[in-house]
């Protein structure tokens, strides 16, 4: 490997492999791609590596069925676990993925005790909570993908509706990554203007509902498989914020210890991401109605976590 930063990706399925390619192309980290299926991570890593002369990156990639090569990783992305099938909720994945994520997290933590863990496996809020429990890492070094993906989906829908650049659109999404997510239209803007000022309520409602069901929409269309391009792009943004110490404000599934009046629960909130992981949790000023909705969203996550009996 080079003397670059080291990112290990556990799970060489569609999302894991796409993450590996996106991060490798940025050129600031070497990649270890791990999977239990013999030949799968080796083949995908080799294929990505062979694109380096065309895309001009010098990141090195290793595919392996062992955790040995992940030792001393700076960042570990966990995508392993079962993915959703048509008609399946994220919560139905819970028990199936519990044992997988526990084992993976312990393997990772043993070999990279100073790493930052990014959880991608669903249900991501509960799996992030489980990874904190299994690793015994501080909360700033274990967090999950969710808000960046959900926000990107809403931003793309708003941009298409108004025929504007996605660069001018921001979206505010908090809470659970799932049916109980909280989308706040008054804090979602186009060039600083709240969408509540430029879109009719009927359209906003339609966009909100589509965002909540966006993952299921893709699964329904694909029939076999689930989203991979947008999730991998979101993971790459998180990794970049950490590796390059960007201090970027991004919505992530984070363990709260009293912020927003919520304790012992992982939900999406805006955080400052840098080389130490979560360096600050940003508390937005919410209305009484929004606070209530966020607490209800947190309760939905708490019910899932309770079922794990940690």
Q: What is the element string, with H for helices and E for strands? A: EHEHHEEHEHEHEEEEEHHHHEEEH
Which sheet architecture does the biggest sheet show? 6 strands, parallel
CATH topology title of the largest domain: L-2-Hydroxyisocaproate Dehydrogenase, Chain A, domain 2
Total domains: 2
The CATH class designation of the largest domain is: Alpha Beta
What is the correct CATH architecture of the largest domain? Alpha-Beta Complex
List the total number of helices. Answer: 11
Helix percent band:
40-55%
Summary of the model, kept short:
The protein is an alpha/beta fold and 310 residues long. The protein has 11 helices and 14 strands. The strands form 4 sheets. A 6-stranded parallel β-sheet has the order 3-2-1-4-5-6, with helices on both faces.
């Amino acid at each position: 490997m080079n003397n670059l930063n080291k990112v290990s990706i556990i799970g060489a399925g569609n999302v894991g492999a796409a993450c590996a390619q996106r991060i490798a192309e940025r050129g600031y980290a070497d990649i270890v791609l791990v999977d239990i299926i013999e030949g799968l991570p080796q083949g995908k890593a080799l294929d990505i590596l062979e694109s380096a002369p065309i895309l001009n990156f010098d990141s090195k990639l290793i595919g392996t069925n062992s955790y040995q090569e992940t030792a001393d990783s700076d960042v570990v992305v966990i995508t392993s676990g079962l993915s959703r099938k048509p008609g399946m909720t994220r919560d139905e994945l819970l028990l199936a993925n519990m044992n997988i994520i526990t084992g993976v997290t312990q393997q990772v933590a043993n070999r990279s005790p100073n790493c930052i863990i990014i959880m991608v496996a669903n249900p991501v809020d509960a799996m992030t909570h489980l990874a904190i429990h299994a690793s015994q890492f501080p909360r700033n070094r274990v967090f999950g993908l969710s808000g960046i993906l959900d926000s990107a989906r809403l931003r793309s829908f708003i941009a298409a509706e108004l025929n504007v650049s996605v660069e001018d659109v921001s979206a505010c999404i908090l809470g659970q990554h799932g049916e109980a997510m909280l989308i706040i239209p008054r804090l979602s803007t186009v060039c600083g203007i709240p969408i509540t000022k430029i879109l009719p309520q009927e359209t906003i409602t339609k966009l909100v509902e589509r965002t909540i069901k966006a993952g299921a929409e893709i699964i329904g269309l694909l029939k076999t498989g689930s989203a991979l391009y947008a999730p991998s792009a979101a993971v790459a943004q998180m990794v970049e914020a950490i590796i390059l110490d960007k201090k970027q404000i991004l919505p992530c599934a984070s363990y709260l210890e009293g912020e927003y009046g919520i304790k012992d629960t992982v939900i999406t909130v805006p955080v400052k991401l840098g080389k130490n992981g979560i360096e600050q949790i940003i508390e937005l000023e919410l209305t009484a109605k929004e606070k209530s909705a966020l607490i209800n969203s947190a309760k939905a996550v708490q019910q899932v976590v309770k079922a794990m009996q940690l």
